Amino acid sequence: MKSLLHVAEKHGNPHKVLLQLICQNGGIRLSKIVEVFQAICDAALTPTSIPEQCTIKTLSKALIKSINAVIEPMELKVAIATDYRFPDEQFLTLYSTSSGGKFTKIFTPDELELFQKWFNLMFVDATHRGELHGVEAINVQFDGRKRPILAEAFLKKLVEDNILVKLQKYNSFIFSSKSVLELEPRLRANNYDIPQCPVCSLLIIVQRFSYTCETCESSIHNTCLFKYVFVLNLSYICKVNIL
Q: What pTM was estimated for this model as a whole?
């Protein structure tokens, strides 16, 4: 019986199946990665054991290293991403490392123009930064007129392709964890005035899922705040004291 960690270190058929699951579902919960990968190995008739050193951290690190060695020449990468809708969950996801993200290359000219208008609504003329309201998206002016049928179909496509995620409660859309990884270089390179989290150093792209300190007026991801206060059992203090 092979060690699950040793199997993870050498790219093979189980890694290909794992990558297919990531593509189909947009990601795999990091908290489930050990049992998911072991189930894949069992299905592939590769019985495995889970040694003490095979933790979520060590297994995900081994999988990322072995998979990326194969897919990076194709401008693809597997990484750990945070879904800011949840306080304490991360995902193993696949994203494009090409400039601007791979998904913009598959848009039609009309879709690309519409995407840019929505992008501006989310980050330039935003009421809630990083969020696109459904009504605004459908009624945006396009070619001097509204094209709600095109807009609605395009929104549906973006959700199905795991580029956008719909917040049902607010009838709005945000970028998925995968898309955030692809778009962060663009958002940093251009002056969108997006604050950086003092805990994880990533951009706080979605304003709704962040907290602003009343003392120093700096912002922090809700997920980082949760980890800082509840997981590490520390009192939250302002940015000056964090740094």
A: 0.81
Backbone angles phi, psi at 172, to 5 degrees: -140, 170
Q: Is the backbone of residue 35 left (phi > 0), alpha (psi -120 to 50) or beta? A: alpha
AA identity, residue 223: T
Residue 30 lies in a domain: yes
**Can you tell me the distance from the alpha carbon of 18 to that of 21, in angstroms, rounded to the nearest whole number?**
5
d(CA 226, CA 218) in angstroms, rounded, equals: 16
Q: Whole domain around residue 6: which residue ranges?
A: 2-74
Residues 110 and 175 placed together within one structural domain of the fold = yes
Torsion over CA: 44, 49, 53, 55 (sign)? positive
pLDDT of residue 63: 97
Residue 69 domain-assigned?
Answer: yes
Whose tokens are 């290359």? That residue is 105
CB 176 within 8 A of CB 162: yes
CA distance 129 to 8: 39
Whether 209 and 176 share a structural domain: no
| Structural domain contains residue 189 | no
**CATH code for the domain in which residue 114 is found:** 1.10.10.10
Confidence band, pLDDT 50/70/90 cuts, at residue 37: very high
Domain boundary, last residue among 74, 91, 111: 74
Of 188, 190, 183, 201, the closest CA to residue 242 belongs to 201
